[in-house]
What does this fold into?
Amino acid sequence: MSDHTDNPATGLQDSELLTRGKQKRAQLMGQAFVDRAFAGDPQAFGADFQRFLTEYAWGAVWGRGGLSDRERHMVTLGILAALGRDREFEGHVRATANSGVSERDLSDVLHQVAIYAGVPAALSGFRLAGAVLAERPDPEGT
It folds into this structure.
């Protein structure tokens, strides 16, 4: 099996890591998210970073096995909250709908953040997560 496939959009070859990364990223974050990340000129400033990020964060790390997507997502949420990476944290809270992380799981993660990274980081996480979760449609349609 070849480790590269032709990508007609870029004229380059996609590695297996990039292909796996795009699939995993779309599974968790949504296909529209991946499409936006790769929209535009593949030679534009930052386009190579999207490729790098997708190959290594999503293809190599998220695709490596060992942890389930749910477990890996809880680790990611805790790290993002602890570091105060609000924009990325919000995106990953949205993606919990695709990874099996429940609201209770998220609350437990943020309790861990409070103890190991500080109460202000956890409070910020609860505030941001609450706002994102409030945007979700009511599963009962009420």
